[in-house]
Amino acid sequence: MQHWGQAGHEGAAAYGALTPWRGVLRHLLPLALMVLFVLALREKAAALDLAAIGTALAAVSPLQWLGAVAATAISFAALAQYDVLIHRQLATALPEAQIRRAGAAAIAVSQTLGFGLVTGALVRWRMLPGTNLGQATRITALVALAFLAGWAVVTAAVVAVLPVALPGARWMALAVLAGFGALAALAFWRPQRFPPLTLAARIVALAALDTAAASLALWVLLPGGVEAGAALLPAFLLALGAGLISGTPGGVGAFELALLSLLPGQPAEPLLAAVLAWRAVYYALPAALGVLAMARPSRASAPRGLPQLRRGLPVPEAPRAEIGLLAQGEHALLLAPDGTPGWLLAETGQTVTALLDPLAPESLGGLLAEVRAQAAQRGRLACLYKITAPTALRVRAAGWTVLPVAQEAVIDTARFALANPAHAGLRRKLRHAAKAGVMVTSVPPGGALPVAQMAALSAAWVTTRGGERGFSMGRYTPAYVAGQHCVLAWQAGRLVAFASFHTTRGEWTLDLMRSGGGLPDGTMQALMAEAIARAAEAGVPRLSLAAVPPDPAQLRGLPALIWRMAARPPCGLAQFKAGFAPRWQTLYIAAPSPLGLALAAADIARAIRHPRPLPGAQYGFATTRPAWQRSASPSPERLPR
Fold this sequence. Notes:
Aminopeptidase, elongated, single chain, twelve-stranded mixed β-sheet, alpha+beta
């Protein structure tokens, strides 16, 4: 398995770093093992009736050959899809049909000739114009690792439930499954170091389809007298693993020895005859076709078109002020088919999420398809987060699963009046702040801010609370708040609290709230009241105090049950916002399936509570992608960094 071990290297340069004798040993070892396995088989062959093997082989009917060829075609279709998944992660944007042809040919040739990393890389290099040898080597290594990981999970699952003549196999299989379960949990909590769970699930599904079809090709060729039954699949998978570990071309020797040992009750001659026929169909025929495909001249194809992303937007023109999150540098804008801004797009460890309502509601159908395309491109789940009821209704009609996720506190600035009886508690809080000598000032976007005092206050606030939240919530940086409307609370000339708002012509939305220790009662209420007054003066009709978790008492059915089960002590922030007697607007989360929705909701919650570091650039998308996911030659035009 030495050649698979190069998966972490970036390309062919890794070979130059190896000393000559190590390189020779690595190439000679599979040949030596093949000789040993052949010798071992020769000892067994002494007790075999070679004429019976020939007779069984000659008895294979045309219908059996045809069935084996069909099963082989299914297996290779699944194998070729590994390349598609890897190319998506590396954002190569090559046409997927070309990727599949190159992948199938590379696997067919390399599994027959051996030295998988070398031969597979050379075939992909030949058949993918514009790809250098280093990139082809990396793709080959990642495909090999993907298959091995998928094979391990599928084999463990099969061995755990089907009979196999190997002592302790079931317990070992359960241990392997437990280990992969632990890795899956770790991948969720530490997504920067692992592939997305959706991608991992697709790899396992492909491995299941590939190996099931390969074993079916062997089963179809079994002659009469061989009744392996349910034991064939686990025996086949374990024998396949033995062949992979041996490193010999096609696993010759190791596969046969393992299969004979794991099916001890079956007659050896017919079984070996079926294996010989299977090797002709599953190895020789695909290898010949792969060589023919490689011999044909390859033409450079136009890169596959992807939904376009854009870094910036004239924020005052946006319908929702929270579009200002773009200035944090984490998110991007998905463009509508006509090239106009379509949807705010964010990425978590497991999702590609469209935030808020689409900026182009009339293009919702096309934008939904493009959100899913972006998610598929990155091996993640598609998700919509904090959408309003009209969008939720249209999305549900399109077949998505939808659940309430938050309630947004909205103030109609023209109707807001402190004299309203509903604001009695608010008036009391404002009197407390005034008696404590709290003064509030307002600074519009681009105005002069007390940057040093704000930074110190924010740093102390973050330390006290163990960090900032992120993803759909802003994080303090001087440049970020400079583009927002800020309200600041002072006491005796000292800054004691501040709040910032995303602003557009039609809406202000609360973003940051920061305060120091010993804060006078009513200070934060004074900040909000000042912001409402300034928004009303500017003719802004709507001010949002942002969202809080939904109240289960206001929900019905399954959503009410889910939120009751997740209920926590009363949210102080919700009580604070309720003091302004806002209009509560329900927001929703949506995903294409219930299981996807559950995973997406959990991952978004993790991303909010444990956000990744902000990128250094002013704008970008997925600038902190894991090292295993980065392409040697990224396409910044299609994937802004």
